Model the fold of this input.
Amino acid sequence: MLMLKLLQAAASGVVTGCIYAMIALSVVIIYKATEIVNFAGGELVMVGAWLGLLLVGYFGLPRPVMLLAVPVVLFVLGAAFDRLALGRIARRRPSRRLEHATLVVATIGLSNLLKGAVRGIPYTQEVRRLPPLIGGAPIFVGDVVLERQDLAIVALAAVVMLALWAFFRYTLPGKALRATSQNARAAALVGIPVAGMRMSVWGLAASLSGLAGVMLAPKLLLTPDMGDVVTLAFAAAIIGGFTSLPGCVVGGAILGIMQNLVGTFIAPQAIAVTPFFVIMLVLLLRPQGLFGDTVGVRRV
Amino acid sequence: MLEVSGLSAAYGAVAALEDVHLRVAGDQVVCLLGANGAGKTTTLNCISGIVPVRRGRVLFEGEDVTNRLPEQIVRRGVVQVPEGREIFPRLSVEDNLRLGGWTQRRHRSWRDDLARVHDLFPRLRERAHQPAGTLSGGEQQMLMVGRALMARPRLLMFDEPSLGLSPLLVRQLFAIIARIHRAGLPILLVEQNARIALAASAYGYILENGEITLHGPADRLAADARVRHAYLGG
Ligand SMILES: Nc1ncnc2c1ncn2[C@@H]1O[C@H](COP(=O)(O)OP(=O)(O)OP(=O)(O)O)[C@@H](O)[C@H]1O
Ligand SMILES: [Mg+2]
Done:
């Protein structure tokens, strides 16, 4: 019985963990490319969720079409934000320190803008829920119950994350993005369009967040404030070291599983504080996070 | 070929270059000498589109390329080997080279270019799959030269290539620069090491506090009393 509960909690944890991991990846690829912490990461998730619901629930589009449309629209949104807001601020170039602070504040602005915009749409006035991505009876593995939709979420997340990994590791544009984040000056000197690269990173990150929103939407009530889930993605990223992509995946999984274990074995009310305990534990044992660079961490 | 005229640049309110003129003709090695902080790197970065030009013009092959984007300038064939260790440390040596050919990526010939670079620097072939950050300082310098060649340059600019290299490596590097030049590439060479730079060049410019104070054929400069005093140690 205990074993079953444990396995069941772990299985549910992996599902939410995948979603945290995707949002964390979105935040971390922007951070790695631009050193900007994107405080609008959660609102991009929220917009993705609402857009998915709108396309399926209001316009009646088939789900596979929605699953393609949401990342495409979010890519454009993310890239446009970089081009229109961040690019402009960077071109003014007040001073490096000031510029960086301004850029981070701009992401907070985006967060409020998106929340306000979604609140302004009449369709969002009612609390809604996206119907399951796929229906059908749950599947039993031994005595562990697995919802088909959860399996679909994990499969989709796995495909997306593998594709992302392969893109960064094996394609020339992926390598150019990594090069730009390792040494932007050198990238400019070899003729890599640095501004375009930054724009693509924002687009890519926004699509990841949007997809995560679609995956999260059937499990949660949709509200304009659902972007708060980003706190958990930050936690996942910090556990993983904040600059490591595998770290995001492992951090997300650890967090999802821990939350479910705590909810099952301790108390549901304790779920909310779990991330902070996990973060403190990890940072005490490994200040640079599980996969973080040791450079940049100063021991006092 | 390359013609810089009336070039001025500043960092904020601080002027770095004032009315700089220089030319590199079609088949020359030209050097730009000066002490620390004279503005040598700034000059190259203005040409490369990294630092904005306040006044003046940069012409390359008769075309005005002033304040173009860096990628447009590289695509025109003006490629810089920067000062210091400006590599992509966590990408492999081979990926660093391939990214050097970023502007040429649509051409099928990048493999031939890579083979040529490997022939010039066999060490880079041996080290192809290790992270570039694990190379020695000298090897990283070679990597930056190889990376610049991958862009199919029509003019190559070196920023203090001798910095931090042992005398033996400096000699090897300048032998390679001479070889690249003999293959038909004009070169703009920035150096503090005036002796070796003047020996390698046909023409030279002296930059002091952001202004060109002296220029002439390299042998004439090497014989000039002021140059001997300030840059050749007597
Ligand atoms: N990013 C920058 N911001 C502010 N001032 C700068 C910057 N880069 C260079 N400078 C200043 O501009 C002047 C010229 O610098 P530059 O780097 O061009 O000199 P250099 O001739 O290349 O010197 P070195 O031989 O030491 O490399 C110096 O006074 C330097 O302090
Ligand atoms: Mg310099």
User: Anything to note?
Assistant: The interface with chain B takes residues 172, 175-176, 178-179, 182-183, 185-194 of chain A (CB under 8 Å). Residues 11-124+133-224 of chain A form one domain. The two ends of chain A are 47 Å apart (CA to CA). The beta strands of chain A are 139-141, 144-146.
